[in-house]
Hints:
Oligomer: single chain
Strand order of the largest sheet: 3-6-5-4
Order of helices and strands: HEEHEHEEEH
Radius of gyration: 17 Å
Helix content: 10-25%
Low-confidence stretches: none
Amino acid sequence: MNDHPDAPAVRQLRLVVEAEDYEAALTFYRDVLGLPEEAAYSSGDGARVAILDAGRATLEIANPAQKKMIDDVEVGRQVAPKLRVAFEVADSRETTARLVSAGADEVAPPTLTPWQSLNARLDAPGGLHITVFQELATPEEREQLDGFGTS
């Protein structure tokens, strides 16, 4: 139940990823990508989890045509599975180089998109297909582009 009538029904989006190589995935996302550790838990039977702070969360719902268009723009071919995780970063080129050095496979280098962001695609630990993106325009500037208003 909400504490306040105006409080949002959902307060947090938490994406749970099962990683066969827990230590490698934790090092990659916490230490290399830079997601601060919020909490970590373990039990005597070897179960371990770390909760990493990824900043503001959104859930992006795309129809198949949009998913295809994004793959075409960012990669030039269809590569993304049904689930792709995107991280906004300050510098796409530097972050991509750092993540590749830490073991990610570059699928596509940082690419300028029609919506004025610099997006790179990687296959990362934990079996995730990820985008790192750098916003180059303000939301107000982006709203002026064809097809980028709100519904």
